[in-house]
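Batch manifest, entry 17 of 40.
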Amino acid sequence: MKKRFLPENSFRKINLNLIISISFRTKFFYSVSRIYIICGLLAGWCLAITDPAQASHGIFSHGKSYSNNTQVGGLSDISDLLPALPQLQLATADPAEDDGFSFLSLIPASKISGYTGYRFSANQQSGSDQTSENSFTGGAGLSSYIWQPWFARVKGDFDATQSLNNTGTSNTNSTRISGNLSFNILPLSRYPLTLSYGRSDSSVTSTNGLSSATTSSSTISDILTLSALYQWDTSLNFKLRTSVNTTEREEESNQTSYQNTFGVSKIYDDHRINFQTSSSLFLFEDMVNSEDSESLSNSISLRHSYTPWKNVTYHSISSLLLSTSENPLSESEQAMIQNTYTLSWTPRDQPITITGISRTLADLKTTSDTSNSSSAGETKIMDSALNGQLGITYRYSPKVDMTFSGDASYSSTDLTTTTTSNSLKASTVLSTGATGTASYKGDQQKVLDWNWGWGTTGSLSTNITPEQRTHSQAANINQSIRRDFSFPLFPRLSVVGNEGLTLNKSIDSPVGTSVSHGLRLSESNSSESRWTSSSVSFTDSRTLSGLEKSSRQLVNLQVNNTLSLTQKSKLSIAVSAQTSRQTSETAKAPWTTSSNGNIDYIASNFLDMPNLNFVSSLTFSSDSLIPLSLKTSTTESEDAVSWNRDWKVGLKFALGMLRSDLTLKMSENESSPRATSLSFNIRRQF
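Output type: structure tokens
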């Protein structure tokens, strides 16, 4: 696509209007002006050190194009400054019309965009006053570059919102204005630098209609961010990010936070190392209670990946956290070190995987009570933990899989409290465990036109703690059958059945026996204009012997239907209902039912009007088998029914850059009266 440039006079007008629109506050205007001046001086300095007689690579300087020899700051070629300089073909001014250097020539054509919008919403609930909201929004954006696209890119945006809210008893007027400006210097080089500044100014004024009392508040937020990347070569790079964020609330509180992050990534032949350090400082000033608080945290993390031998990988993550917090009532300090090491062996010629994981943790937290109460003192909590895991997965054959996992853990907690009476508490936990599992899956076979298959699984597990020792064994055998039928009414009917028998045994408990059965019927049908699927399933599981006999039954029904009424309209229906029951020797619970569904209708070019779309959506749910239950709750709990219905209809219209929508929503449930809301949105982009 051919790039179009604006005439110089037109750009001057646009640039002047943009500066006026962004400078909505004096402080913001001064900040933006300083950034413009600094970048302008930097660009002018680069032009000054460039010999106009030897500019190259199609660089646009003073409205002229020169040959392919460049001298920049003593460098023989500009590629010494930028390792990968793109070959850009930019429009140049006619040399016959060149009347000398112009500062505006440093900023060529810009891409300017924006939007304006309006939103109205009204809500009405039975028995309460009507609430309404009117919002006016607008914004503009700028995208350009200084001198050349590879030298510096500029992006800026401005947004403003004015809202008026009426709740019947009070009126609220809120205003929010925000702007962002960013400079990306040398974006295509090995060392791009990004500087961004953002400001948000919001105010809220409320008037109570009963007492005519007026309250107001305002909040101003500023954030300044600097991001830098330096890529030494393909295997080494450095990243830096620092930001300052301040928030001022009128006569309430001030908040300031500083965040810094530095990272290094290095790749060797078989090693990959990532090092990162970050720090954050948060300051809070409560002007109402004249109290200040401060929190500081520093973290260091190191990641290492290594391939010491063939098919062997090693990963490690180490982190250190140091944090302090201080307020008028207490002070706290925390130091935490955490390490994780993982070693995995996966040979390509053997169906086996062995993985070992080791974790260590040391956490010391000290809290001091600086109040004048009698309980003032110091509390220290020292947590330490060590955990090791070993996992082995072996596929003996395509039908037989075996797994083994073992773990051992140690944890200790020391609590020391220094008050008027000293106390010391300590606890230590040591545990080990192991689990082995083997499974077999048989082939599918034809039995009386049914696809039949079976499988079995066995497991052994043990767990040892200082308080107890547990062992358990379990065995399971299961089978499944499947067959597809075709009938005039159900051309694609599938029947799937399964059943299983499970035996388990643990210490000091009798052998437990449980059986399960399941049956599922599903049907699907599709054509050019219709797609339908439905299914009904039933599951039953029972414990026949063991500590306590129990049973559970579940019945589930699902129906989905999508129908294309015309080429421009579609109807979708989805309904599901289920009922379940769970009983035991000591308790017998009643059947629990629930149902939900939705009906959606979408029509494009509604009423034969181009670009007009109609949407209707009905959502319902109920604690009964009838989704659209008209039954309301009563004082008797056994007759109480919970239900909810939401119906939303809307019109959407689009014409070029204009978007608008009108939505009406009605909600109702058993515990609250009917609520109706109406909203209208219109938005124009340019």
